Amino acid sequence: MTNVTEAVHRQAVSDAPQSLAVGDAPQSAAKTTASKPTQKTDGPMKRFGKPLIWVLVVLAVGGGGYYAWLKLRPPGLPEGFASGNGRIEATEIDVDAKIAGRITDILVDEGDSVNARQVLVHMDIRTLEAQRREAEAQLERATYAVETAEAVVRQREGDRMAAKALIDQQEAALDAAARRLARVEPMAKLNFETQQQLDDARAARNGAAASVALARATLAAAEAAIIAAKSQVVEAKEAVDAAKATIQRIVADIDDSSLETPRDGRVQFKVAQQGEVLPAGGRVLNLVDMNDVYMTFYLPTKEAGQAAVGAEARIVLDAFPDLVLPASITFVANVAQFTPKTVETEAERQKLMFRLKAQLPADLLRKYVREVKTGVPGMAYVKLDPKAQWPANLSVKMPQP
């Protein structure tokens, strides 16, 4: 009986190190155990117990996660559809200064919504106002020059009329002198007229002929003066037109110094600040057109070849995964290109891709203009087969008002 008790005691002592090793017992308990039996009982559980437990835990967690992913992942696209990732973009508009000048006032801040033809920036127009006054003075001088030139024309026309009358007078005197000479010459041959009278008659006829020639030269000079005066009128009128055009140009520059937006949009950022001097074409503001919002994405050759302009599309944004926005394909590139590095993996970048643009409806953008934000990433889905039906998870889901 004593031998049996001792055997049981030895068996208990030999088993103690194994249980303490698994349970991480204190060192004091381990010291009560004989070293020799402990060396004999070393095995796989002793050497690999802890790592094995952790491996089992990791496998269990990983398996559970994979199972959850399988259950919760979105269903794949059916036949007749394709997808690609991209970002919301919008047409950008730069508000530039037409002419060099100083910014006197900026009426909007970054993030403000603006309407078409709204004045956003005022430029300094003091120099333009001075130029306009100068041009108006030139116009006034040109107007007086026209009146003066027209008066000169009228005067030259009067000179022409006087020259014509003088010609008639001198021609009459020439005719009379010629008739008198014709009477005196035969009478002088018969000694009924003296030689002196004959000479006087000849001198009178020659003088009348010279007067006629002089009158005709005066007429020619008057006509030339009229032509010159009329050309001065034309020049004066051209000066008037030039002055008016200068005024119109300056007024247009003054109007353009109030910088407007051509479309509805949103101020994205300021490039210049109040008081800065800009060169001609200097940019002041950058806007985005909220009526032209779209997502650019890429498809491989086969799928892009089946996509058509006007095809139905859907856009799902990462920031709003529960919303499905309607869209339509407005652009399909006709030239293949490499996919940008920020879109696909390195292996996919080696494939030629085609760029597409999914446009959001204008009425939808107007309704949610304040909620629209550019740069938000997401996915674009396009219907390749017109007969295909959109899956339930891609049915249009709009935000609740």
What does this structure look like?
This protein has helices at 2-23, 27-31, 35-41, 44-72, 126-189, 195-256, 301-306, 346-349, 362-367, and strands at 81-96, 101-106, 113-114, 119-123, 258-260, 265-270, 277-278, 283-300, 312-317, 320-332, 337-338, 352-359, 377-383. It starts with a helix and ends in an 18-residue tail after the last strand. Helix 5 (126-189) packs antiparallel against helix 6. It is 51% helix and 23% strand. The protein has 3 domains: 2-72, no CATH class; 81-91 and 291-394, Beta Barrel (Elongation Factor Tu (Ef-tu), domain 3); 127-256, Helix Hairpins, CATH 1.10.287.2610. Mean pLDDT is 80; it is low at 1-41 and 68-74. It is built from 9 helices and 13 strands. Strand 9 (312-317) and strand 10 (320-332) form a beta hairpin. By secondary structure, the protein is of the alpha+beta class. The strands form 2 sheets. The chain has a 6-stranded antiparallel β-barrel with strand order 1-8-12-10-9-13. Strands 5-4-2-7 form a 4-stranded antiparallel β-sheet.
Low-confidence stretches: 1-41, 68-74
- Residue share in β-strands: 15-25%
| Integer tally of domains | 3
Reported CATH architecture of the largest domain: Orthogonal Bundle
Q: State the strand order across the main sheet.
A: 1-8-12-10-9-13
Quick description:
This protein is of the alpha+beta class and 401 residues long. It has helices at 2-23, 27-31, 35-41, 44-72, 126-189, 195-256, 301-306, 346-349, 362-367; strands spanning 81-96, 101-106, 113-114, 119-123, 258-260, 265-270, 277-278, 283-300, 312-317, 320-332, 337-338, 352-359, 377-383.
